[in-house]
Design brief:
Blueprint: H1 16-39, H2 43-61, H3 63-67, H4 69-89, H5 97-107, H6 110-130, H7 137-222, H8 230-253, H9 264-271, E1 293-299, H10 307-328, E2 332-339, E3 343-350, H11 369-379, E4 383-388, E5 394-401
Parallel strand pairs: 1-2
Antiparallel strand pairs: 2-3, 3-5, 4-5
């Protein structure tokens, strides 16, 4: 017995239970055919049993029968014809009807298999009566009971198999979702670590090397022109300058992809484009019909900012816009980046529903956006404020201090 259907995907290797069932069916068919051949009252009956066995064996191993439902139906027709011939010659062929029930139920659609089983049971009963057996309830009950058991067994097994396949697919989907979630968490962790390393390098190595450079320059100016230490100080200053440039290259390499190909202003402007999500590739709809219209503007004279400043301001803008889309039900929002003499300020304002800032608490669905934004700003020595009220929209403002070095043309974006 083999699986047969119209062209279908390749089956997975049989598990032990189906393999054992098929083996038992093969053995049952072989045993009943041998019994019918031995107890046949004529050579013709023995030959018919042998032919039926050959047809059954051929169908079990021919590839077309395994891959095409039409070929399987043709094979069942030939097998049924040989069985009817055998049934005509010997009443012992009656018992072969039982494995035929399973074959018909397994290989044919339900709308064809149930009538085929009924016809097979009827043929077995008529043959038994036609060979002169006395009429009694067992003549009818035996074939019909066997047919009922076969129908219940096969249909029940098929229902269990479908349920098992549904659960298997569900488990595969869950495993796939878990793998995707793990990959997303690893990616988020990688980005967070990159930002942390960039901030640490900027705040420690780069700033330390910059201070060493300034001190060496001051020492160089304080030395007499003919001092033998002047050359050593000059070489030390150049070494500090080279290492500062290398530290800045490390910081650039760890910069988020949003800032790799442009300034902070350009990254914020891209964030406001229609279809842009809070993290670039995520589904969001800033500036589109599915979300608020977002406008970006720059105030003051732009200067290069330290990389940690750019990363913090970009992430705060992304988080604030994400809150606007998810919670504010706003129709308009505006991002303003302001450069002033002693600070750089980012404002995100919307005309949404608003809320009571003091009533916000972290929730199981997130709710850590405002504390995270505040922590980013305060970690860089800045300030973070939220102004909102029910029905009056929300304004988020972050201000980061700028030192003279930060405002120099060579500072900021490189360190």
């Amino acid at each position: 017995m083999a699986p047969h259907s119209s062209p279908r995907p390749a089956r997975r290797p049989l598990t032990p239970a189906p393999f054992v069932l098929r083996l038992c069916l093969h053995l049952l068919m072989a045993g009943l055919l041998v019994l019918a051949a031995v107890r046949a009252h004529s050579a013709a009956g023995t030959v018919a049993a042998a032919v039926t066995g050959v047809v059954y064996a051929a169908g079990s191993y021919l590839p077309p029968v395994r891959t095409s439902r039409r070929a399987a139906a043709v094979w069942l027709g030939v097998l049924g014809a040989s069985w009817l011939a055998m049934l005509w010659l010997t009443p012992e062929a009656l018992w072969v009807a039982f494995p035929l029930y399973f074959l018909q139920l397994h290989l044919l659609p339900v709308r064809w298999s149930l009538p085929a089983v009924a016809l097979t049971a009827g043929a077995a009963i008529l043959s038994y009566v036609g060979h002169g057996a006395a009429l009694n309830p067992g003549v009818f009950i035996g074939p019909l009971l066997g047919a009922a058991v076969a129908v219940a067994t096969v249909l029940g097994y098929q229902a269990l198999y479908r349920e098992s396949e549904r659960r298997r697919r569900l488990i595969e989907e869950l495993i796939g979702a878990r793998a995707e979630l793990a990959a997303a968490e690893r990616h988020a962790g990688t980005l967070a670590e990159r930002e942390r390393l960039a901030r640490e390098i900027h705040d420690t190595l780069a700033q330390g090397l910059s201070s060493i450079q300034l001190l060496l320059r001051a020492a160089e100016r304080a030395l007499p022109p003919d001092s033998p230490a002047a050359g050593h100080i000059e070489r030390a200053r150049r070494a500090a300058q080279d290492n500062l440039a290398e530290a800045r290259r490390f910081v650039r390499a760890l910069t988020p992809s949003d800032l790799e190909h442009g300034s902070l202003a350009a990254a914020l402007e891209r964030l406001c484009e229609p279809g842009a999500g809070p993290y670039g590739s995520e589904a969001g709809a800033y500036g589109s019909e599915a979300g608020p219209r977002v406008r970006f503007s720059v105030s003051g004279t732009p200067v290069e900012l330290p990389t940690p400043y750019e990363v913090a301001l970009l992430r705060i803008a992304q988080s604030a816009l994400a809150n606007t889309v998810r919670h504010a039900s706003a129709s308009r929002a505006e991002i303003t980046l302001s450069f002033m003499d002693a600070s750089v300020t980012l404002d995100v304002v919307d005309d949404g529903e608003g809320f009571e800032p003091g009533s916000v608490r972290p929730s199981s669905e997130g709710g850590f956006g405002l504390p995270a934004m505040r922590a980013r700003a305060e970690s860089l020595g800045g300030t973070f404020t939220v102004e909102s009220a029910p029905g009056q929209g929300t304004a988020v403002a972050v201000s980061l201090p700028l030192s003279p070095e930060d405002r120099s043309p060579t500072a900021g974006g490189t360190a």
